[in-house]
Amino acid sequence: MTDVADPPAETEAHADDGHGAHEEAHGHGGHHASLGLSNMKLAMWLFLGSECLLFGALISTYLLSKARFVAELLAGNPRVLETLPVGLAEEFIEAGSVEPMWDIPFTSGSSFILLMSSLTMVLAHKAVTEGDYRNSRVWLAATALLGSTFIAGQVYEFTAFYREGLSYDGNLFGSAFYTLTGFHGAHVTGGIIMLLSLLVVSFRGKLRQDRAETVELVGLYWHFVDVVWVLIFTIVYLIP
Amino acid sequence: MAVVEEPLALPSGESPVARNPLGAFARPRDVSGLKGWLTTVDHKKIGIMYGAAAMFFLVIGGVAALLIRIQLAAPDQTVLSGDAYNRVYTMHGTVMVFLVVMPIGAAFANFLMPLQVGARDVAFPRINGFSFWVFFFGGLMLNTSWFIGGGADGGWFNYAPNNGIAFSPSTGIDFWNIGLLIAGIGSLTGSINLITTVLNMRAPGMTLMKMPVFVWMTLVTQFLLLFAIPVLTVAQILLTSDRIFGANFFNVTQGADPLLWQHLFWIFGHPEVYLMILPAFGIVSEIIPTFARKPIFGYPFMVFSGIAIGFMGWGVWAHHMFVSGIGPLSVTAFTVATMFIAVPTGVKILNWMATLWGGKLILNTAMLFSIGLVTQFTIGGLSGVSHALAPSDTQQTDTYYIVAHFHYVLFGGALFGFMGGFYFWWPKAFGYKLSEKLGKWNFWTMVVGFNLTFGPMHILGLQGMPRRMQTYAEAQGFGFWNFWATVGAFILAVGVILFLVNAFVSYLAYRRADRPDIGPDPWDGRTIEWSIQSPAPNHNFDVDPIVTSVDDFWHRKYQPDESGKIRKVHSGEELAQPGDPTGVHLPAPSYWPIILAAGLPITGYGIIFNLWLAIPGIILTVLALWGWALEPADDLDPGPAGTDDDHGGHGPGGDHEPELETV
Amino acid sequence: MADTTTDTQAHAGTHADHAVHPTEKQYWIVFVALAVFTAIEVALSYGGLEGVQLVAPLVVLMAVKFMLVAGAFMHLYFDLKILNGRLFTWAFGGGLVLAMGVYAVVFAAFRFQV
């Protein structure tokens, strides 16, 4: 009796190794969740927890760098002054901050788009859980599209700033700003790739109700990236 | 749903696909030989590989140490030039911290955590394989800097602005950055894996407060890793941006504050040292009770003090910065916090001592090394307490007094604990014990060598010998103790070599005696990993163990009789699971972890030398991610019974189409 | 805007106890709230306020938006009701609180005057 040994009675949802919340008093499967939670969801939350430290460091670095930059400008440090076009430098000095750089209406529009993409994301997940596959594809595509629009907006904003004279390697402010928002943008791009992959899987008919968790996990990542933008928008753009 | 005839009957009633629909992505089925190791997802094999890799890096770091000691043995020597000396001590520290101590911790954590909680493997086996390979490749990449980059030369904590292009123009520090960035990914993914495993995959009845102390300590370690690695990542990204892409994060002429590096590094760095010692604390907390024949004294206190160390470790980092000009308020605050953190560690020391007190001590090698940790860590901790006070630290910092402190806690503490762990769990991993005779020689040589090397450094430090100085003048009077420290270093090296010799010799003896079965429980152990055969079978447990108390295995062997006296009622052999893999399904091996891991250093070399080279690296990485995602969750055809591929008549069945998000 | 609790129970295979799940309408309400708060924030930034008077309401609104996305969209609020669901909040919240604490101290230790 080798490979046809009679298995014990637990044959429920083993479709996903490591998923599922069934207590087995006697199992051969070995994968039983002591806490009744999903392994993958727990892993994703742990990962997001660590990402808080990552973005926290980037945001702190930005705030410190920006503060030092403004302080140096106001003190008239020539090496800092020569990294900016004269007009821009004067605007910063007069405002006592980097506020003149921003185009708040434009960035608000970007923020709104990203918030909307979070909405379409939860609607996509909802559609999958309800078995409404057609709508799930619509919402997934919408999320990817809105995310791409956000990225396009970022690219436009960066090129505008660059043309106005803010370079990456010129001064502290440029380095910090582009690094922080660049990392965020890279995370968004990664999310878009995951969304497109989900779409492909869905079109091949494989993204079904019992796999809704995959969509949920991508959603968690996507919302996190949105939440980081909520922080960036306020801290970088709105607070002087 | 009876699935006797149709091993892979699908819940939907469709018939299984006869052949692998994606031939190119077929998972390997061979678990033997080199390919078996390269594609393994078995946590035990991965743990052994972590340990073996760490031993390899230990030799590299050790040779660097001996070079330092040769250079410093007498005043005014020129064995190593100033530049060479900088590279040697930087790489010594970096290799020892990141490529020896951390991976040995990972080795024990990977091997033991699933066994001690009664699981069959970790939550995400392929990610586990990936964690190892990415660490190994990152470490290899870091060490190629000796040959093609000049070796990092900024010290293991690499302060700004010295770490910038202006003061360190060679590519050595770029290798430091990127090699460690890559290795750090392994630590991060590993931590997510192990936390999920411990929280979510414990055996029935094993509540959190019934887990072995070792599991608790390594669980706290994983949380520390989870939150600390991203901070180092950001610091290294900022530095890489400065060095390679011209950013200004540490450019003082632009107004940057170099202290930013110090803060970011030490916010990582202090939890880092706790995550280096906590696994060793856990190991010792298993060994001492076993060979004192008593349960650990104060189990809840051991657990809570470990958690406390994990929490408080986040609040003390600037004690590495007392002389950096952060101002008296910060200095005072961190002094107080650092003094507080000595308390939970003190609790542990007292508890170990209380466990030893009144026990029937068996002083074998594992126990000796454990007692060595308790003693030597205490010495290191005492010097640590004097560092905590900012006024005294102002004299001690950057002197050999600090060097003495951290070697006592890291080598005399962590590494001694790991050695004990090797002796203790070697039979479970390999099926034979290491020689006790050679073990005692190993231990005593290391004790003598270690204390002779680092003991005098306390004196040297207080006499004013600064660290990281290539040489010293005759007139300074440091020659005497430096000479003896060098003698000690060579004795210590002999001691370490004796361990490797022991491993080799014991293996040969095992082979020559025709591989006798040592049985499941050679030490009369307390925890459930001793309830399975040695070496541990591929599938760990035949059936899930049901746990009813701490030290569950012990309590099933030793029970009170009618008069209430505790008697041994069963031997380990009687209770142990026989190792029958029938009905077991294990995750199949996979190529993708090692392939994905290989893409990262290629990208890294590209970033350092030529961005065009980064492109094939990125392409390989992306393709590997796709291959991973598209790989079938399990292989489709069950192999012969007793191998990893035996599905035992009922696999996780279900879908055999490629899944997007498999582990 | 169909009530989805029955559907939820129907696919409870891999989800332990999905006691509550937001309706589509609730998601839209959250989104509108987020948009409104964003608009208020932008208006505030043009409002001519200075110092704490500007920063405090902005930070408060930012926190509210954060909690809305995390609680509703990321389901954390509803996860509190399932067995051990608090763990998700703690895993994430732990990282968040740690980050805020640690970086706040870094701030405090820095000097900004040239």
Question: How would you sum up this structure, described in words?
Answer:
The complex is a heterotrimer of chains A (240), B (663) and C (114). Chain A has 240 residues and is mainly alpha-helical. Chain A folds into two domains: 1-37, no CATH class; 39-238, Four Helix Bundle (Hemerythrin (Met), subunit A). Helix content of chain A is 70%, strand content 0%. Chain A contains seven helices and no strands. Chain A has helices spanning 39-74, 78-81, 86-95, 104-129, 133-164, 172-203, 212-238. The longest helix of chain A has 36 residues, at 39-74. Residues 1-31 of chain A have low confidence and may be disordered. Chain B is an all-alpha fold. Chain B has one domain: Cytochrome C Oxidase, Chain A (Up-down Bundle), CATH 1.20.210.10. Chain B contains 18 helices and two strands. In chain B, strand 1 and strand 2 (566-568) form a beta hairpin. In chain B, helix 3 packs antiparallel against helix 4, helix 5 (172-200) packs antiparallel against helix 6 (213-245) and helix 8 (299-312) packs antiparallel against helix 9 (328-356). Chain B is globular. The two termini of chain B are 26 Å apart. By secondary structure, chain C is mostly helical. Chain C has one domain. Chain C has five helices and no strands. In chain C, helix 2 (24-46) runs antiparallel to helix 3 (51-73). Chain C starts with a helix and ends in a 5-residue tail after the last helix. At the A-B interface, helix 1, helix 6 and helix 7 of A face helix 5 and helix 6 of B.
What descriptive keywords fit this protein?
heterotrimer; B: mainly alpha; Cytochrome C Oxidase, Chain A; two-stranded antiparallel sheet; globular; disordered N terminus; C: 114 residues; mainly alpha; 0% strand
Strand order of the largest sheet of chain B: 1-2
Shape of chain A: elongated
Largest sheet entry of chain A: none
**In CATH terms, what is the fold-level topology of chain B?**
Cytochrome C Oxidase, Chain A
The fraction of residues in strands of chain B falls at under 5%
Low-confidence sequence ranges of chain A:
1-31
CA distance, first residue to last residue of chain B = 26 Å
> Mean pLDDT of chain B, nearest integer?
90
- What is the gyration radius of chain A calculated from CA atoms? 24 Å
Summarize the main sheet of chain B.
2 strands, antiparallel
Q: Give the largest interface pair and sizes.
A: A-B, 70 and 84 residues
**Helix-strand makeup class of chain B:** mainly alpha
**Helix count of chain A?**
7
Looking at this structure, what is the CATH superfamily of chain B?
Cytochrome c oxidase-like, subunit I domain
